[in-house]
Automatic annotation (TrEMBL):
Signal peptide bounds: none
Protein name: FAD-binding oxidoreductase
Gene3D superfamilies reported for this sequence: D-Amino Acid Oxidase, subunit A, domain 2 (3.30.9.10), FAD/NAD(P)-binding domain (3.50.50.60)
Keywords annotated in UniProt: Oxidoreductase
Boundaries of every FAD dependent oxidoreductase domain copy: 6-370
Length: 401
Protein backbone atom coordinates (compact mmCIF):
# COMPACT_ATOMS: atom_id res chain seq x y z
CA UNK A 1 0.00 0.00 0.00
CA UNK A 2 1.23 3.46 -0.91
CA UNK A 3 1.16 6.53 1.33
CA UNK A 4 -0.80 8.69 -1.15
CA UNK A 5 -3.84 7.99 -3.34
CA UNK A 6 -5.83 10.11 -5.73
CA UNK A 7 -9.09 8.67 -4.39
CA UNK A 8 -9.74 7.05 -1.02
CA UNK A 9 -13.16 5.40 -0.68
CA UNK A 10 -14.37 4.91 2.89
CA UNK A 11 -16.47 1.75 2.76
CA UNK A 12 -16.23 -1.26 0.47
CA UNK A 13 -19.86 -2.30 0.21
CA UNK A 14 -21.78 -2.06 -3.04
CA UNK A 15 -21.56 1.76 -3.22
CA UNK A 16 -17.82 1.96 -2.56
CA UNK A 17 -17.09 -0.97 -4.85
CA UNK A 18 -19.21 0.56 -7.61
CA UNK A 19 -17.39 3.90 -7.35
CA UNK A 20 -14.05 2.08 -7.55
CA UNK A 21 -15.15 0.11 -10.62
CA UNK A 22 -16.44 3.10 -12.57
CA UNK A 23 -13.30 5.09 -11.83
CA UNK A 24 -10.97 2.24 -12.74
CA UNK A 25 -12.91 1.44 -15.92
CA UNK A 26 -12.94 5.06 -17.12
CA UNK A 27 -10.13 5.61 -19.66
CA UNK A 28 -10.15 9.32 -18.78
CA UNK A 29 -9.20 8.60 -15.16
CA UNK A 30 -5.59 7.58 -14.60
CA UNK A 31 -5.34 8.06 -10.83
CA UNK A 32 -4.84 5.63 -7.96
CA UNK A 33 -7.82 4.21 -6.03
CA UNK A 34 -7.97 2.79 -2.51
CA UNK A 35 -11.01 1.21 -0.82
CA UNK A 36 -10.81 1.08 2.98
CA UNK A 37 -13.29 -1.43 4.45
CA UNK A 38 -13.52 -1.98 8.20
CA UNK A 39 -15.33 -5.35 8.11
CA UNK A 40 -13.44 -7.95 6.03
CA UNK A 41 -16.36 -10.40 6.34
CA UNK A 42 -18.99 -7.82 5.32
CA UNK A 43 -21.21 -9.64 7.82
CA UNK A 44 -22.73 -6.40 9.09
CA UNK A 45 -22.72 -4.55 5.79
CA UNK A 46 -26.10 -3.31 4.58
CA UNK A 47 -25.28 -4.89 1.21
CA UNK A 48 -25.17 -8.43 2.55
CA UNK A 49 -28.14 -8.07 4.92
CA UNK A 50 -30.57 -6.52 2.45
CA UNK A 51 -33.53 -7.99 0.58
CA UNK A 52 -31.55 -7.29 -2.64
CA UNK A 53 -34.35 -6.09 -4.90
CA UNK A 54 -34.71 -3.53 -7.67
CA UNK A 55 -37.76 -1.57 -8.77
CA UNK A 56 -38.68 1.39 -10.93
CA UNK A 57 -41.83 2.19 -8.93
CA UNK A 58 -40.65 5.38 -7.23
CA UNK A 59 -42.27 8.78 -6.86
CA UNK A 60 -39.38 10.85 -8.26
CA UNK A 61 -38.29 10.57 -11.91
CA UNK A 62 -34.62 10.71 -10.90
CA UNK A 63 -35.05 7.58 -8.78
CA UNK A 64 -36.88 5.84 -11.61
CA UNK A 65 -34.01 6.61 -13.99
CA UNK A 66 -31.41 5.52 -11.43
CA UNK A 67 -33.12 2.13 -11.15
CA UNK A 68 -33.58 1.78 -14.89
CA UNK A 69 -29.83 2.11 -15.29
CA UNK A 70 -29.27 -0.28 -12.39
CA UNK A 71 -31.48 -2.84 -14.09
CA UNK A 72 -29.50 -2.53 -17.30
CA UNK A 73 -26.25 -3.21 -15.43
CA UNK A 74 -27.72 -6.15 -13.51
CA UNK A 75 -28.95 -7.78 -16.71
CA UNK A 76 -25.53 -7.46 -18.35
CA UNK A 77 -23.45 -7.94 -15.21
CA UNK A 78 -21.68 -11.15 -16.17
CA UNK A 79 -20.32 -9.71 -19.40
CA UNK A 80 -19.37 -6.36 -17.85
CA UNK A 81 -17.63 -7.80 -14.77
CA UNK A 82 -15.85 -10.73 -16.38
CA UNK A 83 -12.40 -11.33 -14.88
CA UNK A 84 -10.13 -14.05 -16.28
CA UNK A 85 -13.06 -15.85 -17.86
CA UNK A 86 -15.20 -15.76 -14.71
CA UNK A 87 -18.60 -14.16 -15.34
CA UNK A 88 -20.54 -13.46 -12.14
CA UNK A 89 -24.19 -14.54 -12.32
CA UNK A 90 -26.55 -12.40 -10.23
CA UNK A 91 -29.42 -14.89 -10.69
CA UNK A 92 -31.84 -12.06 -11.45
CA UNK A 93 -35.51 -12.96 -10.91
CA UNK A 94 -37.46 -10.48 -13.04
CA UNK A 95 -40.79 -11.08 -11.29
CA UNK A 96 -41.81 -7.48 -10.67
CA UNK A 97 -43.21 -5.47 -7.78
CA UNK A 98 -46.88 -5.27 -6.84
CA UNK A 99 -48.14 -2.33 -4.75
CA UNK A 100 -51.66 -2.57 -3.30
CA UNK A 101 -53.80 0.42 -2.24
CA UNK A 102 -57.02 0.31 -0.26
CA UNK A 103 -57.76 3.89 0.82
CA UNK A 104 -58.02 7.22 -0.95
CA UNK A 105 -54.57 8.44 0.09
CA UNK A 106 -52.84 5.25 -1.04
CA UNK A 107 -54.71 5.37 -4.36
CA UNK A 108 -53.69 8.99 -4.89
CA UNK A 109 -50.03 8.19 -4.21
CA UNK A 110 -50.05 5.22 -6.61
CA UNK A 111 -51.57 7.37 -9.35
CA UNK A 112 -49.13 10.22 -8.79
CA UNK A 113 -46.18 7.83 -8.71
CA UNK A 114 -47.41 6.18 -11.89
CA UNK A 115 -47.31 9.49 -13.72
CA UNK A 116 -43.64 9.92 -12.73
CA UNK A 117 -42.88 6.36 -13.82
CA UNK A 118 -44.65 6.76 -17.17
CA UNK A 119 -42.73 9.96 -17.86
CA UNK A 120 -39.55 7.84 -17.77
CA UNK A 121 -40.92 5.04 -19.93
CA UNK A 122 -41.16 2.53 -17.07
CA UNK A 123 -43.14 -0.63 -17.83
CA UNK A 124 -45.67 -0.25 -14.99
CA UNK A 125 -49.44 -0.71 -15.16
CA UNK A 126 -52.31 0.22 -12.86
CA UNK A 127 -54.91 -2.48 -12.27
CA UNK A 128 -58.44 -2.46 -10.98
CA UNK A 129 -59.55 -4.94 -8.31
CA UNK A 130 -60.85 -7.33 -10.98
CA UNK A 131 -57.66 -7.17 -13.01
CA UNK A 132 -55.63 -7.83 -9.87
CA UNK A 133 -57.77 -10.84 -8.97
CA UNK A 134 -57.38 -12.24 -12.48
CA UNK A 135 -53.59 -11.94 -12.39
CA UNK A 136 -53.08 -13.27 -8.85
CA UNK A 137 -56.04 -15.48 -7.91
CA UNK A 138 -54.54 -16.47 -4.55
CA UNK A 139 -55.05 -12.93 -3.20
CA UNK A 140 -58.06 -11.70 -1.26
CA UNK A 141 -58.76 -8.35 -2.89
CA UNK A 142 -62.18 -7.25 -1.60
CA UNK A 143 -60.62 -4.24 0.16
CA UNK A 144 -58.23 -3.26 -2.65
CA UNK A 145 -59.08 -0.19 -4.75
CA UNK A 146 -56.01 -0.07 -7.01
CA UNK A 147 -52.81 -2.02 -7.74
CA UNK A 148 -49.57 -1.03 -9.44
CA UNK A 149 -47.55 -3.79 -11.13
CA UNK A 150 -44.13 -3.65 -12.75
CA UNK A 151 -44.20 -5.89 -15.80
CA UNK A 152 -40.45 -5.69 -16.46
CA UNK A 153 -37.31 -4.14 -15.04
CA UNK A 154 -38.08 -5.19 -11.47
CA UNK A 155 -37.20 -8.18 -9.31
CA UNK A 156 -34.48 -9.47 -7.03
CA UNK A 157 -30.93 -10.74 -7.36
CA UNK A 158 -27.73 -11.82 -5.61
CA UNK A 159 -26.77 -8.96 -3.29
CA UNK A 160 -23.21 -9.95 -2.41
CA UNK A 161 -22.68 -10.99 -6.02
CA UNK A 162 -23.24 -7.39 -7.10
CA UNK A 163 -20.75 -6.07 -4.56
CA UNK A 164 -18.15 -8.78 -5.18
CA UNK A 165 -18.43 -8.39 -8.94
CA UNK A 166 -17.81 -4.65 -8.82
CA UNK A 167 -14.93 -5.06 -6.39
CA UNK A 168 -13.24 -7.90 -8.26
CA UNK A 169 -13.42 -6.02 -11.55
CA UNK A 170 -12.12 -2.83 -9.94
CA UNK A 171 -9.15 -4.72 -8.47
CA UNK A 172 -8.41 -6.31 -11.82
CA UNK A 173 -8.25 -2.79 -13.24
CA UNK A 174 -5.81 -1.56 -10.61
CA UNK A 175 -7.88 -0.46 -7.59
CA UNK A 176 -6.58 -1.52 -4.18
CA UNK A 177 -8.62 -2.78 -1.25
CA UNK A 178 -7.48 -2.93 2.37
CA UNK A 179 -9.24 -4.16 5.48
CA UNK A 180 -8.71 -1.30 7.89
CA UNK A 181 -10.71 1.61 9.26
CA UNK A 182 -10.51 5.33 8.67
CA UNK A 183 -10.52 6.87 12.15
CA UNK A 184 -9.54 10.50 11.49
CA UNK A 185 -9.13 13.06 8.72
CA UNK A 186 -6.86 16.07 8.46
CA UNK A 187 -8.69 19.05 7.04
CA UNK A 188 -6.73 22.01 5.73
CA UNK A 189 -9.15 24.81 4.93
CA UNK A 190 -11.48 23.73 2.15
CA UNK A 191 -10.04 20.28 1.53
CA UNK A 192 -9.16 16.99 3.19
CA UNK A 193 -5.43 16.38 2.90
CA UNK A 194 -4.94 13.10 4.81
CA UNK A 195 -6.86 10.24 6.38
CA UNK A 196 -5.62 8.24 9.37
CA UNK A 197 -6.14 4.49 9.63
CA UNK A 198 -6.83 2.42 12.73
CA UNK A 199 -3.64 0.52 11.99
CA UNK A 200 -1.72 3.77 12.50
CA UNK A 201 -0.91 4.76 8.95
CA UNK A 202 -1.67 8.14 7.42
CA UNK A 203 -2.56 8.49 3.75
CA UNK A 204 -2.41 11.62 1.65
CA UNK A 205 -5.58 11.96 -0.43
CA UNK A 206 -6.78 13.80 -3.51
CA UNK A 207 -10.47 13.00 -3.00
CA UNK A 208 -12.37 11.24 -0.22
CA UNK A 209 -15.61 9.39 -0.99
CA UNK A 210 -17.92 8.73 1.94
CA UNK A 211 -19.46 5.35 1.10
CA UNK A 212 -19.79 4.13 4.68
CA UNK A 213 -23.49 3.28 4.68
CA UNK A 214 -25.21 3.66 8.06
CA UNK A 215 -21.95 5.05 9.49
CA UNK A 216 -22.02 7.99 7.07
CA UNK A 217 -22.46 10.61 9.80
CA UNK A 218 -19.53 9.19 11.76
CA UNK A 219 -17.30 9.41 8.68
CA UNK A 220 -18.47 12.93 7.85
CA UNK A 221 -17.82 14.09 11.41
CA UNK A 222 -14.13 13.22 11.00
CA UNK A 223 -14.02 15.99 8.40
CA UNK A 224 -16.06 18.37 10.57
CA UNK A 225 -19.11 17.86 8.37
CA UNK A 226 -22.71 16.72 8.91
CA UNK A 227 -24.99 14.34 7.05
CA UNK A 228 -28.53 13.48 8.31
CA UNK A 229 -28.05 9.71 8.05
CA UNK A 230 -28.48 7.20 10.84
CA UNK A 231 -28.87 3.42 11.15
CA UNK A 232 -32.49 2.24 11.24
CA UNK A 233 -33.07 -1.43 11.95
CA UNK A 234 -35.04 -3.68 9.59
CA UNK A 235 -35.76 -7.34 10.37
CA UNK A 236 -36.23 -9.86 7.57
CA UNK A 237 -37.88 -13.25 7.99
CA UNK A 238 -37.74 -16.35 5.80
CA UNK A 239 -40.76 -18.61 6.15
CA UNK A 240 -41.98 -21.95 4.85
CA UNK A 241 -45.50 -22.25 3.56
CA UNK A 242 -47.73 -25.31 3.92
CA UNK A 243 -49.68 -24.45 0.74
CA UNK A 244 -47.41 -22.20 -1.28
CA UNK A 245 -49.16 -19.96 -3.83
CA UNK A 246 -46.00 -19.71 -5.96
CA UNK A 247 -46.81 -20.85 -9.49
CA UNK A 248 -50.44 -19.72 -9.30
CA UNK A 249 -50.04 -16.35 -11.02
CA UNK A 250 -51.58 -15.89 -14.46
CA UNK A 251 -48.76 -13.55 -15.48
CA UNK A 252 -44.98 -13.89 -15.49
CA UNK A 253 -45.07 -17.66 -16.08
CA UNK A 254 -46.83 -18.25 -12.78
CA UNK A 255 -44.23 -16.45 -10.68
CA UNK A 256 -45.28 -14.19 -7.85
CA UNK A 257 -43.90 -10.66 -7.55
CA UNK A 258 -42.63 -8.82 -4.52
CA UNK A 259 -45.94 -7.67 -3.06
CA UNK A 260 -46.32 -4.63 -0.82
CA UNK A 261 -49.54 -4.90 1.17
CA UNK A 262 -51.40 -1.73 2.21
CA UNK A 263 -50.23 -2.45 5.77
CA UNK A 264 -46.61 -1.99 4.62
CA UNK A 265 -45.81 -5.69 4.93
CA UNK A 266 -43.93 -7.02 1.92
CA UNK A 267 -43.39 -10.60 0.77
CA UNK A 268 -41.68 -12.33 -2.14
CA UNK A 269 -40.58 -15.85 -3.08
CA UNK A 270 -37.14 -16.92 -1.91
CA UNK A 271 -36.38 -20.28 -3.53
CA UNK A 272 -38.88 -22.74 -2.05
CA UNK A 273 -39.51 -20.32 0.81
CA UNK A 274 -40.69 -16.71 1.11
CA UNK A 275 -38.94 -13.58 2.36
CA UNK A 276 -40.91 -10.97 4.29
CA UNK A 277 -40.57 -7.86 6.41
CA UNK A 278 -42.39 -4.72 7.51
CA UNK A 279 -41.81 -1.15 8.62
CA UNK A 280 -41.51 -1.14 12.43
CA UNK A 281 -44.22 0.52 14.48
CA UNK A 282 -41.55 2.65 16.11
CA UNK A 283 -38.47 3.44 14.05
CA UNK A 284 -35.74 5.06 16.15
CA UNK A 285 -32.12 5.32 15.17
CA UNK A 286 -30.12 2.42 16.62
CA UNK A 287 -26.54 1.79 17.58
CA UNK A 288 -24.21 0.92 14.70
CA UNK A 289 -23.59 -2.51 16.25
CA UNK A 290 -27.21 -3.37 17.13
CA UNK A 291 -28.26 -6.23 14.88
CA UNK A 292 -30.67 -8.03 17.21
CA UNK A 293 -33.79 -9.00 15.20
CA UNK A 294 -37.17 -7.70 16.28
CA UNK A 295 -38.64 -11.20 16.55
CA UNK A 296 -42.09 -10.00 17.63
CA UNK A 297 -42.76 -8.28 14.29
CA UNK A 298 -43.56 -11.58 12.60
CA UNK A 299 -46.31 -12.68 15.01
CA UNK A 300 -47.69 -9.22 15.75
CA UNK A 301 -47.57 -7.52 12.33
CA UNK A 302 -46.50 -9.71 9.43
CA UNK A 303 -48.36 -12.99 9.84
CA UNK A 304 -51.78 -11.39 10.53
CA UNK A 305 -51.46 -9.19 7.43
CA UNK A 306 -50.34 -12.04 5.17
CA UNK A 307 -52.97 -14.47 6.46
CA UNK A 308 -55.67 -11.89 5.78
CA UNK A 309 -54.34 -11.25 2.27
CA UNK A 310 -54.06 -14.90 1.10
CA UNK A 311 -55.28 -18.30 2.22
CA UNK A 312 -51.89 -19.60 1.10
CA UNK A 313 -50.22 -17.58 3.87
CA UNK A 314 -52.39 -18.82 6.72
CA UNK A 315 -50.14 -21.77 7.62
CA UNK A 316 -46.54 -20.53 7.60
CA UNK A 317 -43.46 -21.11 9.76
CA UNK A 318 -40.34 -18.99 10.22
CA UNK A 319 -37.14 -20.82 9.28
CA UNK A 320 -34.67 -17.92 9.53
CA UNK A 321 -34.45 -14.24 10.42
CA UNK A 322 -31.86 -11.48 10.62
CA UNK A 323 -31.65 -7.73 11.06
CA UNK A 324 -29.86 -5.24 8.85
CA UNK A 325 -29.56 -1.47 8.80
CA UNK A 326 -31.01 1.11 6.47
CA UNK A 327 -28.66 4.07 5.97
CA UNK A 328 -31.67 6.27 6.64
CA UNK A 329 -31.73 9.86 5.44
CA UNK A 330 -33.85 11.60 8.06
CA UNK A 331 -34.28 14.69 5.88
CA UNK A 332 -36.13 13.14 2.95
CA UNK A 333 -35.45 9.39 2.61
CA UNK A 334 -33.38 10.02 -0.53
CA UNK A 335 -29.79 9.45 -1.51
CA UNK A 336 -27.25 12.25 -1.07
CA UNK A 337 -24.61 12.24 -3.82
CA UNK A 338 -22.05 14.94 -4.51
CA UNK A 339 -19.36 17.13 -2.96
CA UNK A 340 -19.64 19.30 0.11
CA UNK A 341 -19.92 22.94 -1.03
CA UNK A 342 -17.15 24.06 1.33
CA UNK A 343 -14.94 20.95 1.22
CA UNK A 344 -14.90 20.16 -2.46
CA UNK A 345 -12.77 17.01 -2.31
CA UNK A 346 -15.14 15.30 0.17
CA UNK A 347 -17.87 13.51 -1.82
CA UNK A 348 -20.99 12.04 -0.26
CA UNK A 349 -22.56 8.81 -1.51
CA UNK A 350 -24.94 8.22 1.37
CA UNK A 351 -28.49 8.11 2.70
CA UNK A 352 -29.94 5.48 0.37
CA UNK A 353 -32.64 4.54 2.91
CA UNK A 354 -32.80 0.90 1.86
CA UNK A 355 -32.21 1.42 -1.87
CA UNK A 356 -28.41 1.26 -2.02
CA UNK A 357 -28.11 -1.96 -4.01
CA UNK A 358 -30.39 -0.88 -6.84
CA UNK A 359 -28.96 2.65 -6.84
CA UNK A 360 -25.33 1.52 -6.62
CA UNK A 361 -24.54 1.38 -10.35
CA UNK A 362 -25.82 4.89 -11.15
CA UNK A 363 -24.21 6.29 -8.01
CA UNK A 364 -20.83 4.76 -8.83
CA UNK A 365 -20.98 6.10 -12.37
CA UNK A 366 -22.06 9.55 -11.20
CA UNK A 367 -19.37 9.88 -8.53
CA UNK A 368 -16.71 8.74 -10.99
CA UNK A 369 -17.84 11.47 -13.39
CA UNK A 370 -17.67 14.12 -10.68
CA UNK A 371 -14.12 13.09 -9.81
CA UNK A 372 -12.92 12.72 -13.40
CA UNK A 373 -14.69 15.60 -15.13
CA UNK A 374 -15.89 17.85 -12.33
CA UNK A 375 -19.52 17.29 -13.37
CA UNK A 376 -22.04 14.73 -14.56
CA UNK A 377 -21.78 13.42 -18.12
CA UNK A 378 -24.66 10.91 -18.20
CA UNK A 379 -27.48 11.01 -15.64
CA UNK A 380 -27.56 14.36 -13.82
CA UNK A 381 -27.77 13.67 -10.07
CA UNK A 382 -27.75 17.33 -9.05
CA UNK A 383 -31.27 17.03 -7.60
CA UNK A 384 -29.92 14.70 -4.91
CA UNK A 385 -26.81 16.76 -4.14
CA UNK A 386 -25.67 17.87 -0.69
CA UNK A 387 -26.86 21.46 -1.17
CA UNK A 388 -30.39 20.56 -0.11
CA UNK A 389 -29.01 19.35 3.22
CA UNK A 390 -27.40 22.74 3.85
CA UNK A 391 -30.62 24.50 2.90
CA UNK A 392 -32.85 22.11 4.86
CA UNK A 393 -34.81 21.55 1.66
CA UNK A 394 -36.28 18.03 1.50
CA UNK A 395 -36.52 16.22 -1.83
CA UNK A 396 -38.97 13.61 -0.60
CA UNK A 397 -39.30 10.08 -1.93
CA UNK A 398 -42.79 8.78 -1.13
CA UNK A 399 -42.25 5.19 -2.21
CA UNK A 400 -40.04 3.97 0.64
CA UNK A 401 -40.59 0.41 1.83
Amino acid sequence: MKTAYDVVIVGGGVIGSSVAYYLAANPDFDGSILIVERDPTYSQASTGLSASSIRVQFSNPINVKISQYGGEIIRNFGELMEVDGDRPDLNFHASGYLFLARDAQQVRILRENHEAQKSCGADVVLWSRDELAEAFPHLRVEDIELASYGRSGEGWFNNTGLMNGFRAKARSLGAEVIHDEVVAMRREGGRISHVTLASGGEIEVGTVVNASGPRAAKTAAMAGLDIPVEPRKRTLFVFDCAASPEGSARVCNGRLPLMIDPTGVFVRPEGRFFLTGCPPVEDPGVDWDDFEPRYEEFEEIIWPALAERSEGFEAIKVVNQWAGHYAYNTLDHNLVVGPHPEVGNFIFANGFSGHGLQQGPATGRGVSELITYGGYRTLDLSEVGYERVVEGRPFLEQAVI
